[in-house]
Specification:
The structure holds 2 protein chains of 2 kinds. Chain A is mainly α. Chain A has 4 helices and no strands. Chain A is globular. The chains are: A mainly alpha, B mainly beta.
């Protein structure tokens, strides 16, 4: 789980081209949007791409996205749950 | 299908003539550059018109795919442009062929990858974020 969270942080920094941000700056439970990491709602599309391209999980529903893409913790938990359900 | 039934833009700001084909994987359009185009400069179409061409192509395709084509097309906005590369600019009387690939969608937000061509030569490529109002 910790490896997955670290991977997600690296993928977010790379896909969103976040300059001057390191994996240490992103807390596991830190909100990724607004007052947390500071992403805006349209940045959610890049998170959708990360989930699909790197983890094989498609998110198109906005209400699901809002919940799943809230933080590294919620993203990692969703990936694990989806992987377990598909085994 | 009339392009103005798919996108809210009106002349002289329409930068797409014909929707050639639309699938969930690829949207293709055509656009002939008339001498009256307001984005010409010294006979050459400016970069932002090519970006607009990709955005309008994507919006028209999405309208067809989401079956939202109606009397009054849905409005939206361009939320971001990235990975922009300009190779060449087209001239008066060129016909621009445009390909847009939907990369991701969540709710009314779309991430699109697009490029336009003249005679097989690539003009401009970029990724766009479109948001429906």
């Amino acid at each position: 789980m910790e490896d997955l969270k670290l991977t997600l942080k690296k993928q977010i920094i790379e896909e969103l081209n976040l300059q001057n941000i390191t994996v240490e700056d992103i807390g596991d439970d830190m909100p990724l949007f607004a007052e947390g990491l500071g992403l805006d709602s349209i940045d959610a599309l890049e998170l959708v791409v990360i989930m699909e391209k790197h983890h094989g999980i498609k998110i198109t529903d906005e209400s699901v996205g809002k919940e799943v893409l809230h933080s590294i913790d919620t993203m990692a938990a969703y990936i694990q749950a989806e992987n377990a359900a598909n085994k | 299908m009339q392009i103005d039934s798919l996108i809210p833009h009106r002349a002289p700001f329409i930068m797409v003539d014909t929707l050639i084909s639309v699938t969930h994987e690829k949207i293709e359009t055509k656009f002939h550059i008339e001498a009256t185009n307001i984005f010409l400069e010294n006979g050459v179409l400016r970069e932002f018109a090519l970006i607009e061409n990709i955005a309008q192509s994507g919006a028209a395709g999405i309208a067809v795919l989401s079956k939202s084509a109606q009397e009054k097309p849905a409005e939206g906005f361009l939320g971001g442009i990235s990975k922009l590369v300009v190779h060449e600019l087209p001239k008066i009387n060129d016909t621009v062929y445009t390909v847009v690939i939907p990369i991701a969608q969540m709710g009314n937000m779309y991430l699109l990858k697009g490029a336009n061509y003249v005679g097989g030569r690539r003009l401009l490529e970029c990724e766009l974020k479109l948001v429906g109002a």
